[in-house]
Amino acid sequence: MSVAIVLHRADGAPVSTYFRRAAFGKDDPFAQHREIAWEGPDSMIAGRTSFVGELDVASFPHIETIVVSEGKLTLTAAGAAPLVLGPQTGAVIGCGTSLRIVAESRVQFSFCAAACDKPTKRGITPLRADADFKPSRSLPPEVLLGPAPECRSDNVFTEDGAQYSAGTWDSTPYHRIVRPHRQNEFMHLLAGSVRFAAPDGSMLSMGTGDALFVPQGAAVGWESSDRVAKFYVVQAVQA
User: What is the domain range of residue 166?
Assistant: First the structure.
């Protein structure tokens, strides 16, 4: 039993996830290339894309976080310097952003996107492994199966209307019980490895460079034995 949706394996191993080719709305600039692994009633999707070419987008139609796994992608927002994304780097494109997208050769990336009716944060926000980490909340004692971890985060993008946040997070090792996930969450592991436990006792092992998505409400546990760092996207939705 899978406890999370695997989007990408860094070692190139095939994943068992079912992807469907579909656009995210009628103005999706990646409509021809998008592969959706999960779509929720709260207007969020997650999946992967393989793209080569050039796109000029007058107004990006949604919020989208992109993390490159192979190749190089150049994003240039109007009036800003180009941002070049290579493997293990990412960025958030704000809804309403005017930009140019260029991949001179084929690039592959994982994504997590959400609809946004009233955008307030346009532009391109880089995600960085060398983040400006600050101490963040640890886990409550009742869910831990060992010592409490020390956690840090650097949240660089928030769109309140879509309840969408993105950034970088890391933690010392910890072991947590299986419990319903409290929000939709996209993860791209930058360092370390995690074993995600399912209610039936099965495990999903994910390592550095892998990407996955855990829907809100999915019953999942966490076990790590080394430092884990990740890019994340979270969306809190009404239960």
Answer: 134-235
Structural domain total, the chain: 2
HSE-CB of 197 using CA atoms within 13 angstroms: 13
CB atoms within 10 A of CB 94: 22
Q: How big is the chain, counted in residues? A: 239
Tell me the HSE value of 213 on the side-chain side, using a 13 A CA sphere: 25
* CB-facing half-sphere around the CA of 232: CA atoms within 13 A: 22
HSE value, Cβ hemisphere, 13 Å, CA-based, for 110: 26
Mean pLDDT by 10 residues, the chain (239 residues): 86 96 96 96 93 98 98 97 98 98 98 96 97 95 97 97 97 97 96 96 96 96 98 86
Angle at 27 between CA 26 and CA 28, to 5 degrees: 100
* DSSP one-letter string for 103-172: EEEEEEEEEEEE--SS----SEEEE-SS---EEE----GGGBSSSPPPEEEEEEEEEGGGTEEEEEEEE-
DSSP class of residue 222 equals E
Residue carrying structure tokens 């979270």: 234
What is the domain-level CATH number for residue 219?
Answer: 2.60.120.10
Which of 108, 127, 146 finishes a domain? 127
How far from 74 is each of 69, 196, 199, 232, CA to CA, in Å? 14, 33, 42, 21
Residues 119 and 18 in one domain: yes
